[in-house]
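Field log, afternoon session.

UNIT: design team B
ACTIVITY: writing a sequence onto a fixed backbone
BACKBONE:
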């Protein structure tokens, strides 16, 4: 049974999740202008909506329900906006982009390869180094070995998913590269000093 106090947290959580998904969809769908601000606001709304679930249930159930609600809202949003349920009118021939020339195609291929490296191995390396730091911090706080390993195994895929999303966000490639390489170098240096 849900009480009124629970609804005070659940309704804003659902509204923030819906707003965050809407902002992300709009910013990623509209390619005409720069849209970094709606992307950051969308992620911030999703994070805030996730945090609103935690006081309602135990933290584990609150986190699971928040992520489940975000996924369900996103799936519903995408289905409602998809070609199946709401087909878009065809794009006029004048607005279609011409095929890129050979030099531009080569550059786009290299750019795609760089983004793949950022979202794959580099994001994974950063997620592992950050999880190692959390492992060491949990050890300093007196956690048992099993709890520390569980924390490590929980944080690596979550951090990798988040960092891979940040690596594919629509910012300059240079900014995304620095955003992953600098924390990786700092965390690797800190690990070298600690161990």
């Amino acid at each position: 049974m849900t009480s009124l106090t629970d609804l005070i947290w659940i309704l804003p959580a659902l509204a923030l999740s819906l707003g965050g998904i809407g902002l992300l969809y709009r910013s990623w769908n509209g390619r005409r202008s720069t849209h970094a601000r709606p992307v950051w606001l969308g992620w911030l709304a999703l994070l805030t909506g996730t945090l609103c679930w935690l006081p309602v249930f135990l933290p584990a159930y609150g986190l699971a329900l928040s992520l489940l609600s975000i996924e369900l809202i996103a799936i519903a949003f995408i289905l409602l906006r998809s070609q199946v349920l709401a087909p878009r009118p065809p794009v006029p021939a004048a607005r279609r982009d011409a095929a890129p020339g050979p030099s531009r195609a080569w550059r786009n291929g290299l750019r795609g390869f760089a983004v793949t490296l950022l979202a794959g191995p580099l994001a994974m390396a950063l997620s592992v180094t950050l999880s190692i730091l959390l492992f060491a911090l949990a050890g300093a706080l007196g956690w048992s070995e099993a709890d520390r390993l569980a924390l490590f195994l929980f944080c690596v895929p979550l951090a990798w998913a988040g960092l891979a999303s940040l690596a594919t966000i629509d910012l300059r490639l240079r900014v995304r590269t620095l955003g992953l390489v600098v924390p990786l170098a700092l965390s690797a240096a800190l690990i070298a000093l600690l161990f």
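LOG NOTE: The chain has a mean pLDDT of 79.
NEXT ACTIVITY: expression trials, pending approval
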